[in-house]
Amino acid sequence: MSLSESRPGEGTIIPVILSGGSGSRLWPVSRSSFPKQFWPLLSDRTLLQETALRGLRPDFGAPIVVCNEAHRFIIAEQLREIGVDNARIVLEPSARNSAPAIAAAAFIVAEQDPGAVLWVMAADAAIDNPEALYGTLEIAATAARQGYIATFGITPTKPETGYGYIERGAPIDTAPGAFHVSRFREKPDLAQAQTFLSSREFSWNSGMFVARADILLGEIERFEPDLHANVGRSVEARLSDMDFERLAEDAFSQSPDISIDYAVAERTERAAVVPATFGWSDIGSWDALWEISPKDDQGNATFGDVFLDGARNCYVRSDGVVATVTGVEDLIVVVTDDAVMVSHRDRAQDVKKMVARLTQAGRTEARNHNRMYRPWGFYESLIQGDRFQVKRIHVDPGHSLSLQKHFHRAEHWVVVAGTAIVTRDQDEIMVRENESVYLPLGCVHRLSNPGKIALTLIEVQSGPYLGEDDIVRFDDNYARHRS
Q1: What is the DSSP letter of 3?
Q2: Residue 481: inside a domain, yes or no?
């Protein structure tokens, strides 16, 4: 169907938040177990929360969040904290890039309103001027209702080599402020980036798209019929899992692993771009975070327990121990409880290469934090030794761990805050502060927090094997089968 044949409508805007990235360039804070969108990097809210709140307007429909299954409870809790209680959380059974994720959202929306306008955005970008964003969105939505697939083109402020670019074409007369896309350009070298910057025809590709669900699905079917068919079957066969919508694994895993840019945006004649100046950053590196963070008189941005002396133009962050930096310039220093990262700001993009080296070396720090979040709370390792491990376990009020047993370890629980109900084989035991309970190897046990305050206990494990996969679940409130 040509653009002239498209039927303009007044479809409701539906925010679609993609939360599948791992953000390895912001290691060691961002890791696959708890990536950057779940961290408060710029305010007291996480990037996911800031993104969700931007989509919380009375004239918008309920948001859709497409995410990794492992992160579903983190997302649900972070949305609950900010009062977003109507989101549809769609679980990807495997990572297949942005096109299948967006297609799934479009299929789900089209079930109720094919003409609804999807506003697709990443969960981990920063916006400095939300009001300017909404003005740009209004232009993009006008174009989308006429059958265009619009993207926001960010006006460049420097010769950036880490972004793709969009070359602007002729204006779209029926959507003032929007332009046809002449072509998409890959990430340039420095000389090309400088040329793009000097021209007014080029914008950074923000990765945000605005399009009607039916138009988007039609173009996906046209260019990627296998993707359209497989995702369609996956959506049709999806299951309701507590508060989540779980896509069918077999069909979804057969979808091509491809971005929406390659699948549709760079191939369709419907592509439109709306120039934008709302202070966007994808926070794709520590240097990018330094650029948008508040700074002292010496150009330093700091977070946490940090002391500087004679430092200039540095980003220093500590999420735990005190960090001191003396007499250096243009450095990034990031300290967590289990890793320290130091890099020149000019090499910030290379942090990803170091993560790859750590992964190749089999280091769990590459992907997992010491603190591991679970739907009931979190745990963190305090001490590890030969045949023993000490952990701190935090259980939120009203939550319970699974009913389980271990083949290779015994456990001793000491309650230090709150009250626990412990199931041990046929017994049910109340354990209060400064009391403890022993769980012999092989016993069937469960930990619950019946109170109104958080439960904290110290767990001492002992045995020949202490891996998290030594667990057999008999019953679980969160429908998990493995740890």
Answers
A1: G
A2: no
Phi/psi region, residue 387 (left: phi>0; alpha: psi -120 to 50; beta: rest), is left
Note whether 250 and 316 are same-domain residues.
Answer: no
* Backbone torsions φ then ψ of 103, nearest 5 degrees: -60, -40
Same structural domain for residues 206 and 190? yes
Predicted model pTM: 0.88
Domain termination site, one of 348, 364, 380: 364
Give per-residue pLDDT as tens, 285-313: 999 999 999 999 999 999 999 999 999 99
Distance (Å, whole) CA 63 – CA 19: 13
Among the listed residues 54, 65, 59, the one whose alpha carbon sits nearest the alpha carbon of residue 11: 59
Identify the CATH number of the domain in which residue 111 sits: 3.90.550.10
The helix/strand/coil state of 119 is: strand
Residue 15's pLDDT band, with cuts at 50, 70 and 90, is very high
Asked which of 324, 347, 364 is the last residue of a domain, the reply is: 364
In a domain, 401, yes or no: yes
**Could you tell me if 357 and 416 lie in one domain?**
no
| Beta-strand runs (E) in 160-300 | 165-171, 179-185, 202-212, 239-241, 244-246, 271-276, 280-281
Tell me whether residue 482 is in a domain.
no
Q: 425 is in which domain, residue-wise?
A: 371-475
Token code pair at residue 355: 């993560």
Angle subtended by helix axes 98-110 and 213-223, to nearest 10: 130
Identify the CA nearest to 408 among candidates 458, 482, 469, 475: 469
| Judgement on whether residues 341 and 238 belong to the same structural domain of the protein | no
Give Cα separations from 304 to 133, 215, 298, 316, 336 (angstroms). 30, 47, 18, 8, 10
Q: Are strands 165-171 and 64-68 parallel, antiparallel or unpaired?
A: unpaired
Torsion sign over Cα 85, 86, 87, 89: positive
Strand, helix or coil at 420? strand
pLDDT digits (tens, 9 = 90+) for 342-369: 999 999 989 999 999 999 999 999 999 9
Specify the number of domains making up the chain.
3
